[in-house]
Design brief:
mainly alpha, 3 strands, DNA-binding, homodimer
Amino acid sequence: MRLVNKTRYAILGVLLDAPASGYEIKSLMGRSTAYFWRESDSTIYPVLKVLAKDGKVLSEIAYVGKKKKEVFSITEAGQAEFKAWFDSPTGDETPRNEFLLKLFFAINRDEVTRLFQERLEKLKKMCEEYKKIEERLESISDSPRRAIRLKALKYGIAHLESEIRWLNEEKNQ
Amino acid sequence: MRLVNKTRYAILGVLLDAPASGYEIKSLMGRSTAYFWRESDSTIYPVLKVLAKDGKVLSEIAYVGKKKKEVFSITEAGQAEFKAWFDSPTGDETPRNEFLLKLFFAINRDEVTRLFQERLEKLKKMCEEYKKIEERLESISDSPRRAIRLKALKYGIAHLESEIRWLNEEKNQ
DNA sequence: GTCTTCATGTAAGCCGTTACATGATTAA
DNA sequence: TTAATCATGTAACGGCTTACATGAAGAC
């Protein structure tokens, strides 16, 4: 079975809301999905080209003042592809948790303490970031999807907080 | 900065305990680290070759009955490399949570319900698998690392259970 | 005038997966 | 004798990251 490029779907999903340029998609994801789905800087543009070639998006040149940009909108074929992915069962990701791997190989309490400490700090930072995104989302005007998107974020936050609690309980034993 | 192949460290970590063949490493990981660190079938052997070439492991041909196998043991250089990785800060993995991505793009309650349901079933299965591994670990004779390894597993289980609770609470709203 | 942000890419190379291959031994 | 498990790989392909590149517009 062939691996599918899920960046495609992330991009199509963003375009369902409104047409956007590559740059806009990139920064939009940075401000919203970044903490559960991040693309590296340069992937968006080539994927957009492929999507255009496949007839899943249409491109149009737009001007903002004198600035030129290439704005993409999703086609019906693109919507169909998105829906097919959305409705298909979510694949297992190969588990790769470096923190747990290290914990598994730890041999004494000092090492465990250090790993826990490091993990705690990282999780707290992530938690703050999630909450910033949450605030931003809460401040924007109500849309049909806002409630669900908030839920996705709250899910992430609840998840992080439970992990933080567990680490705090365990580290003092 | 170059991406490092973390499979190296997983293998070196296993070999810290005792020498083993590629096949043994593979099945050992299948029975222990599988739920936070899985390697695909054919990666172990080539990585072992590279490790041998780099002087991080030594190989020796052993016979079990008439069966031949290549047993690898870790060298001092290998132990040093492992320790360097172990002590270095744990890198961020690029977040790629397909479930949250889909949730983010959901537009109505039915879709959310379906996603939650699917996720719940998957988590329950994983939880059972973790618990099987836990039982196996608990049944073996005490070793200096057993307690820590149990902790790594309990961490995973606690994590899953909190996620399951959250989903159950949310899905009835 | 210089810095930030907007805006868009290319190229090299590692990494990892899937599929493909092979063959021996042992238990039922 | 047939299936499962032990045992070890190769090849092709696609995916993704990093580093490298470029340049315009607007803010200060």
